[in-house]
Automatic annotation (TrEMBL):
<dbReference type="InterPro" id="IPR041664">
    <property type="entry name" value="AAA_16"/>
</dbReference>
<dbReference type="InterPro" id="IPR052752">
    <property type="entry name" value="NACHT-WD_repeat"/>
</dbReference>
<feature type="domain" description="Orc1-like AAA ATPase">
    <location>
        <begin position="30"/>
        <end position="153"/>
    </location>
</feature>
<dbReference type="InterPro" id="IPR027417">
    <property type="entry name" value="P-loop_NTPase"/>
</dbReference>
<dbReference type="Pfam" id="PF13191">
    <property type="entry name" value="AAA_16"/>
</dbReference>
<protein>
    <recommendedName>
        <fullName>Orc1-like AAA ATPase domain-containing protein</fullName>
    </recommendedName>
</protein>
Length: 1442
């Protein structure tokens, strides 16, 4: 509940005692640093205009905190919001930070009445972001200081939650951060601010500090000590404390000792403690130091006392003596003061065996009554022990090297089962398993031990990667259904354990709407935290895009906008989404500001059009016109027409009818140049323009130009929206395709229902053909009726239509619509019955339509919740769990065992597995392998026996599609083995199974597969039997077409033609396939025979409406004649191509075809005809009037052809013309496209031996206004320089690309060139920071074998991790492991296997990676079996955990 805090509450929150204490502590002994303060203030001033972060960083002891403390004092302690993070912060310390900072800001700026949710981290986090936006909007500048971010406790995955810091600070706001180097913190500053590295303190500053405590010391005496501490602020202060307590007589000796090695200062400091309490040193103080060193989190004195078995009062007294070395937090928990103290104790005070002993003591303390730690205790120290043991017992077992005990705990499974109950997300138990994996790797002291432990490592790795498998397998909609039906906590718990973090963010964004407000804020915080922690830039960008949209959807624009403008690739898409949201809120002024930030033309235009329409609705015509005029330079093709049509509407509304007519005339003159959809979209915009003027006649005249049914349906919608229902009805009657027609009449039904004209609605409904659409309209009509008799009658009519619904997918949707209609009318008994029918239909749907099933279940869940059908809710949940699971990777343990036996030649064991342990599918697979082995050994009788046995197993398969597939494979084997009669018999059996396959698409593809097999076996004549068993006409015709094409492939043209003639198919389909037959005839050198079919083809072409299809057929036939031999029809084909014109045929498509003809001629070494066709293509490109992307595309096709095949003289003439296009061009998306094409073309021509064109290429690339497009063009230029081996220019351009796109260089093409040139090191450097991609894989495919050939096996291994596809990585890991095994370097092989298994994150991947032990099969044949023997244990553990 929102409360208004009073000033006292704010003062209490603002005054954090621990933060104030730390600030004063950091000021103690502060000296110098004037230059550093000036530098940081300069960075603050530099960052302020845009807003951002200044990260002050440095290694431990560099003096960061003292420097920030002094800056705060100089700026005014009371007027500078600041917080110094405690040395031992708790797990929720971010709330303390925010509470303090927000309270300080509210008090400083007199905003005490603002909302202050003091105890809610998610709510306070949002308030902080909005408060900063408010200050910025008021023109207020503010600097906030936060020190010690690296001291925040990390999450279980090692990252720190910095989501309380906004990604993008608004103008005027600067946050100065103090932290040791940390990847998460550094990335925040690097992407959204600047970094300042604190330099060492100057020697005179150090000496000045020491003279403060010992004024009589001469600087010369302190010079050696100053050199030793190397400007480290912490060492300087430690030296000051030592000097303060040193007598004059001991001073010189101490200085000599400390100057020799600065670490002696620690020893001297400890010596002072020992001298102060000599009796307590060994029995108390030293044990305390050891415990503080090895414990995994700060502990209270009473707990420390229990660990070392000393009285609490004695421990407290000792801690007072140790004040220079320990820090006591506000919650009384104790930790070592500084990381440097931690390092000194490890390196100089305690030996590794000593620390192992202490870890052993911790295992005893944690492990006492281990079964009791999962129950809470009322005694505080015992409760602290139990809590600590739950989290850190395994860690101490590992560090104590008590590995056998650790493995025993893991193997027993009780600890893991309890831990998963304690922390259901399994993240903590996953970390324990990581420790266990590390311990297995560390335990092997010899090569034999390491080999023996590999199965254990694989076992723990398989369990670790399987922990989250069930949540990973759930369909996304499962989580939503659970949340929708009230099981929010369960949905959230399962999202937490998903292994894909991007998917986690997506799922949170989908379920957040079903949560309570306070929990919703927590989910937003988790979404942003996870998204910001992602390492890959594209994944992080997309995840933050989802976060921003979720904020916007829930009214948190102040949180969404800073994220949106900080994004990379998804920035403009996200901003466009925000525009849509804000327009719905009618905040048009804010919309303009957001649109001003959008750079990508596509999204700029979309958003501007939305805003323009909104402004027109508000009668803000002048503003709308100005916006559209500013948008025009970004527009292309139909977008230009849409804008001009909208401008015409504005002109008409402003009374300038003449200008409106001119604009629409311009739009009409343009649209004819567009292709297909673009042209019709433009026409629809023009029609809307005329209708806006009331010019129905002009709009009506354009109707005939819209031929396609789906667009005529859109035209119907336009008139319905204008209430011109008579014209809408007239247009609906002209739609010839049933689907578009049904949608049009359904829209009419909806309009009539809205107008309560029920008789007309029923008339329109009667014209709907599809039963599912009929039912939908019946339900709408019924719900519009108030009369009970009428709605009952209509719904009963709808129910009668169900008998015509065949598909279970459609049936489920129909039942849902009917049930909703009955429920709407309060007929709940009927409704629930129909919902049950829907549920049954959903279950009956094939799993191959999982998305449809889940969509229907989502709808059903919505209805069940809306109507409070509790029992139905439970049934939906049950069905959701039953249906909503993606197939997991499948493994067959018996199959893998059999493969190992095969590798060892143990055929009898394989036969035993086939007979006793596997199902039919696996049995057939194994028998296929045995058949291949028998054939290899020339044992054909045995192969035949195996084949018959495989047939018997295949016949046991229940799924007919699988059975047909397996029978086909067995037929292939039979034929390859010489058993032709058996192969034919098997194919006949498979053919008879086709009618049993009920799914039409599965039946069709099974039939096509069999046709191909008959063809490959030389039995094509027998394929006709397939058509005899087909009952569905469409499937029959599809098979016949396939048979016809197979005949054509084999050169049997007459048979191909005869088969095609008997097919009852559309003329267009017939012409397409006849064209293929003729092309095949040319390929077989049968140009004369092909001529017999040309007249029929030309006649078929005359009725083809699609000019693009016709042009493709003409082109394919012409090229076939040019390539394989011509007949008398070639001149007429070429003439038809030259003269074809059609409004729907875009010039750039036409140019592409002309270039293909030209390339066919050059392939035949016919340069004159090549040059003629290419010149004609160039002339068409020149004729394109509109400056748009199609014009650039046309020139691009021509340019590629000239550059690849033409002479220099012809190419230069063309390039001169292309370069002229850039003269005087204004910035626009067209200009960017043109500059990109010019950069590519000039770079390509430069590579051909014209280096002066490189400068032009670079110039055009740099002229591109959109940064990512500029980087793309520069890559092409760099690629050109790489081809001519100009390393200097390559590196210069790479530097420019890096500035434009620091996280995505994408230099794979350049890397491949240098790899092929032999410069492997440079190639590795170029791909080092690129994200995984198919292009990068191509480079790695070349690099790794090249490195192995040069014995650079370490380098090959290091880059093998970069593949996108696991199969490729495994292939090369096999080679690398084998390389080492062959050379007897077994230790190196084992290390690679250990690393691959240890670092694997998915169970399916780990199962594949198991095979990298195969190179050991010849020397250690037991290893593969031992690995597989681990699987039952893993399955048992998973059963317990789940």
């Amino acid at each position: 509940m929102m409360t208004t805090p009073n000033t006292q509450v704010l003062h209490e929150a603002a005054n954090q005692r621990e933060s104030a204490r730390l600030l004063q502590l950091r000021l103690t002994g502060f000296v110098g640093r004037q230059a550093e303060q000036t530098a940081i203030r300069g960075l603050i001033d530099q960052t302020r205009p845009s807003g951002g972060y200044v990260l002050v960083t440095g290694e431990a002891g560099a003096g960061k905190s003292s420097l920030l403390a002094q800056l705060i004092v100089n700026a005014g302690l009371d007027q500078t919001p600041q917080h110094f993070i405690a040395l031992t912060p708790g797990r929720a310390y971010q709330l303390d930070v925010l509470r303090s900072i927000v309270a300080q800001l509210l008090l400083k700026h007199d905003l005490a009445s603002n909302y202050f949710p003091a105890d809610s981290y998610p709510a306070l986090r949002l308030e902080f972001g909005q408060l900063l936006q408010t200050l910025s909007a008021r023109g207020i500048s503010e600097t906030i200081y936060l020190d010690g971010l690296d001291q925040l406790q990390p999450e279980v995955d090692g990252t720190r939650d910095l989501s309380f810091l906004p990604l993008q600070l608004p103008p005027g706001i600067v946050i100065v951060l103090g932290s040791r180097p940390n990847e998460t913190i550094d990335s925040l500053a690097l992407e959204h601010g600047v970094v300042y590295q604190v330099p060492p303190l100057h020697e005179q500053d150090a000496i000045g500090r020491w003279q403060q405590v010992q004024p009589t010391l001469e600087p010369a005496l302190l010079h050696g000590l100053a050199q030793a501490v190397k400007g480290n602020a912490l060492l300087i202060e430690l030296a000051a404390n030592v000097l303060r307590h040193t007598s004059t007589s001991e001073m010189l000796a101490l200085l000599d000792h400390a100057s020799a090695d600065a670490t002696n200062l620690f020893r001297l400091s400890l010596g002072r403690i020992e001298q102060a309490a000599p009796r307590h040193w060994q029995p108390l103080i030293r044990p305390l130091l050891a415990v503080l060193l090895i414990t995994q989190e700060p502990l209270e004195p009473a707990v420390l006392a229990a660990i070392i078995e000393r009285p609490t009062a004695t421990v407290v007294e000792a801690l007072t003596l140790m004040s220079d070395w320990v820090s006591v937090a506000a919650d009384q928990r104790v930790a070592l003061r500084h990381l440097l103290f931690h390092d000194f104790l490890i390196q100089h005070e305690f030996t590794q065996p000593e620390l192992q002993v202490w870890h052993g003591r911790m295992t005893q303390w944690c492990g006492a009554a281990l079964d009791q730690i999962w129950h809470d205790s009322t005694e505080s120290v015992e409760q602290a022990r139990r809590w600590y043991a739950r989290q850190h017992y395994i860690t101490h077992l590992d560090c104590a090297e008590q590995w056998e005990a650790l493995w025993q705990v893991i193997d027993a499974g009780d600890y893991g089962e309890h831990k998963v109950r304690f922390e259901p997300s399994t993240r903590l138990y996953g970390l324990d398993l990581d420790r266990a994996r590390e311990s297995v790797i560390a335990a092997g002291q010899s090569i034999e031990q390491q080999l023996e432990l590999l199965p254990r490592l694989w076992r723990y790795s398989l369990l670790r990667t399987s922990l989250t498998a069930h949540a990973d397998q759930w369909h996304d909609d499962v989580f939503v259904i659970l949340a929708m039906l009230g099981r929010v906590s369960e949905a959230l718990a399962q999202i937490e354990i998903c292994s894909d973090q991007v998917r986690q963010v997506l799922l949170w964004s989908r379920v957040v709407a079903y949560t309570e407000p306070e929990l919703r804020l927590h989910i937003f915080q988790r979404m942003e935290q996870v998204a910001r922690s992602l390492h890959e830039s594209e994944e992080r960008d997309y995840a933050l895009h989802l976060v921003a949209m979720a904020y916007a959807d829930h009214g948190l624009l102040n949180m969404a906008y800073p994220i949106a403008i900080s994004l990379g690739n998804t920035r403009d898409e996200t901003l466009a989404y925000l525009v849509d949201v804000v327009i719905k809120q009618h905040d048009l002024a804010r919309v303009k500001l957001i649109i001003g930030q959008i750079q990508t033309p596509k999204y700029r235009i979309k958003s501007s059009m939305l805003l323009a329409n909104a402004l027109i609705e508000e009668t803000e015509f002048i503003e709308a016109r100005q916006l559209l005029i500013e948008t025009l330079p970004f527009a292309q093709n139909e977008q230009v027409v849409e804008i001009k049509s909208l401008l015409a509407t504005i002109a008409w509304r402003l009374g300038d009818h003449q200008q409106a007519d001119i604009l629409l005339a311009e739009a009409r003159s343009m649209h004819k140049y567009f292709a297909d959809d673009a042209k019709i979209a433009a026409l629809l915009a023009i029609i809307k323009g005329y209708l806006a003027q009331g010019n129905l006649a002009q709009a009506y005249n354009l109707h005939d130009e819209i031929k396609l049914n789906r667009f005529r349906r859109e035209l119907v919608d336009i008139y319905i929206n204008r209430d011109d229902i008579a014209i809408a009805v007239e247009l609906a009657a002209t739609i010839t395709h049933w689907h578009s027609s049904d949608l049009a009449y359904a829209a009419l039904v909806a309009w009539y229902c809205k107008e309560a004209d029920f008789s007309k609605a029923e008339q329109a409904l009667g014209l709907i053909k599809a039963p599912d659409q009929q039912i939908k309209s019946y339900c709408l009509l019924a719900n519009s009726h108030a009369d009970r008799f009428q709605w009952m009658r209509l719904l009963e009519s709808a129910q009668l239509s169900l008998s015509s619904v065949i598909s279970s997918i459609s049936l489920a949707k129909c039942w849902l619509q009917l049930a909703d209609a009955y429920a709407f009318q309060h007929a709940h008994d009927r409704a629930q019955s129909m919902f049950e029918h829907a549920l049954t239909a959903i279950l009956a749907t094939s799993n191959s339509f999982l998305n449809d099933q889940m969509y229907d279940l989502l709808q059903l869940a919505h209805f069940a919740k809306r109507y409070n059908y509790d029992d139905l809710c439970q049934r939906v949940i049950y069905t959701t769990f039953l249906v909503g699971k993606h197939e997991d990777f499948e493994y067959s343990l018996p199959f893998e065992h059999a493969m190992l036996h095969l590798n060892h030649g143990e055929i009898d064991q394989v036969r035993q597995i086939i007979d006793t342990s596997v199902g039919p599918y696996v049995a057939v697979n194994l028998l296929q392998i045995l058949i291949a082995e028998s054939i290899k050994q020339q044992d054909h009788p045995q192969a035949q026996l195996y084949l018959f046995e495989a047939l018997n197993h295949a016949r046991k398969l229940e799924n007919p599609s699988y059975r047909v597939s397996l029978l086909g494979e067995l037929a292939d084997i039979a034929l390859a083995s010489g058993f032709e009669l058996l192969a034919k018999t098997i194919l006949g059996e498979a053919t008879q199974l086709l009618p049993v396959i009920t799914a039409e698409n599965e039946q069709r593809w099974a039939g096509v597969g069999l046709v191909r097999r008959y063809y490959s076996h030389g039995m094509l004549a027998s394929a006709a039997t397939i058509t005899q068993v087909m009952t569905v006409s469409q499937t029959h015709d599809h098979i016949m077409v396939e048979i016809s094409l197979c005949y054509a492939d084999s050169g049997q043209l007459a048979q191909a033609y005869a088969t095609l003639k008997v097919i009852n198919t559309q003329t267009e389909v017939y012409a397409r396939n006849l064209c293929q037959i003729i092309i095949k005839a040319h390929e077989h050198g049968l140009a004369t025979l092909a001529a017999e079919y040309y007249d029929e083809l030309i006649e078929a072409w005359s009725v083809i409406a699609d000019p693009i299809r016709l042009l493709k057929d003409l082109k394919d036939l012409a090229i076939a004649q040019i390539n394989y031999g011509s007949n008398q029809y070639l001149p007429s084909l070429l003439e038809a191509i030259r003269t074809i014109r059609h409004p729907a045929l875009a010039e750039y498509q036409y140019v592409e075809v002309l270039c293909e003809i030209a390339r066919a001629y050059i392939k035949q070494a016919n340069y004159p005809d090549f040059a003629d066709w290419l010149a004609y293509a160039h002339s068409i490109a020149q004729s394109i009037v509109i400056e748009s992307r199609p014009k650039v595309a046309a020139y691009h096709y021509v340019a590629i052809t000239y550059l690849c095949h033409a002479t220099d003289s012809d190419t230069e003439i063309f390039l001169a013309d292309m370069l002229r296009l850039a003269n005087g061009i204004a910035p626009s998306s067209y200009a960017n496209d043109l500059f990109n094409a010019l950069a590519n073309s000039c770079a390509s021509y430069a590579v051909r031996g014209h280096p002066d064109f490189f400068a032009k290429a670079y110039q055009f690339a740099m002229a591109i206004s959109v940064p990512w497009q500029r980087a793309q063009a520069l890559r092409s230029v760099a690629n050109g320089y790489a081809k001519v081996d100009d390393r200097v220019m390559v590196e210069m351009i790479i530097a420019e690309i890096s500035r434009l796109s620091p996280n995505y260089l994408s230099l794979d093409a350049v890397a491949l060139i240098y790899a092929q040139r032999g410069d492997l090191a440079f190639a590795q450097t170029l791909i080092a920071n690129d994200e995984a991609s198919e292009e990068r894989d191509a480079v790695l495919d070349y690099l790794i074998p090249a490195l192995l050939q040069t014995d650079a096996v370490v380098a090959a291994y290091q880059i093998s991790h970069g593949f996108t596809r696991l199969t490729k990585r495994i292939k090369f890991l096999h080679q690398i492991v084998n390389y080492y095994v062959e050379r007897g370097q077994i230790a190196e092989s084992i290390q690679i296997i250990q690393a691959a298994w240890r670092n694997c994150g998915a169970a399916a991947d780990l199962w594949e990676l198991r095979t990298i032990v195969l190179p050991f099969d010849s020397t250690h044949p037991w290893l593969g079996t031992a690995v597989l023997d681990s699987v039952p244990w893993v399955e048992q553990q998973l059963a317990r955990l789940n």
